[in-house]
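#struct-pred
JK: can someone run the complex with S-adenosylmethionine? inputs below
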Amino acid sequence: THFGFKEVPEEEKETLVGGVFSSVASSYDLMNDSMSLGIHRLWKDSFVSTMVPRLPPSLHQNPSALTDPTASSTSSTFKCLDVAGGTGDIALRILDRAREKFACRDIEVEIVDLNQGMLNEGRKRVAKTLYYNTPQITFTHGNAQSLPTHIQDNSIDLYTIAFGIRNCTSLPAVLSEAYRVLKPGGKIGVLEFGKVSNPLFREVYRQYSFSFIPIMGKILAGDADSYQYLVESIERFPSQPEFAKLVQEAGFQTGQMKEGKGGAWTDFTGGIATMWTGVKA
Ligand code: SAM
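RT: done, structure tokens with the ligand placed:
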């Protein structure tokens, strides 16, 4: 069976996505590493250092936050929402960067994900870190397209979504929810598979995706269909300028309609992955 989204009624899509991620949750990290040859780690590192270039000076002036991570939730706390945050890959990178680079623990990340299996894997992972049982990291079951109601309008400093938005039924719904919860001046960062620009490299990548990935999925996770679905969802996702246009249409200010410095997006590894950024005016 194929998980071809085009033939599936709208209401069933979310159930289907839930199923796909349930069947891969426990092997998720291993699969990411083997399929991207570990390169997804570099993409995520670059993404997080772009999205958290520094932390506002006020955060450094709160000495209690450095010694007592529970002295949090003050008005100066930097609030991040990592949607489709799954196993905590992005959230942990954000917190590590804040702590290691800026000696800042006055920052919180709430992970929102549609799949309980992924959230549980994330919880297990966090239990092995120094953020365990602190307000710095929390897990919420919820949908990117209509965020849980406790997340209020204009309340978030940084919204991230990595390799999650392509599974959502309505990209505009996700982006307008992000816009709604962000504070004015707050930033959005979307990391997702892009389109490879070089025609030769594109062909090599296509061969790799359609043959190697489902086979690896079968061998490592015993599940070729889920990985076939992942490959197809990558193909269906809009191109870099198309998605940048959606970001703008949701109300965000972006760079110019081009790749790279001053542009609305940045390609990694020839466009296999792409980061789009925007600011709420
Ligand atoms: N962000 C993590 C990373 O980069 O490693 C996880 C990415 S994983 C490929 C995609 C995640 O998106 C899964 O955990 C899945 O449950 C979640 N997801 C899919 N559709 C969603 C939706 N509508 N709302 C929230 N999460 C969703």
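RT: quick notes.
The chain has ten helices and nine strands.
The first strand starts at residue 78 and ends at 83.
JK: thanks, will look after standup
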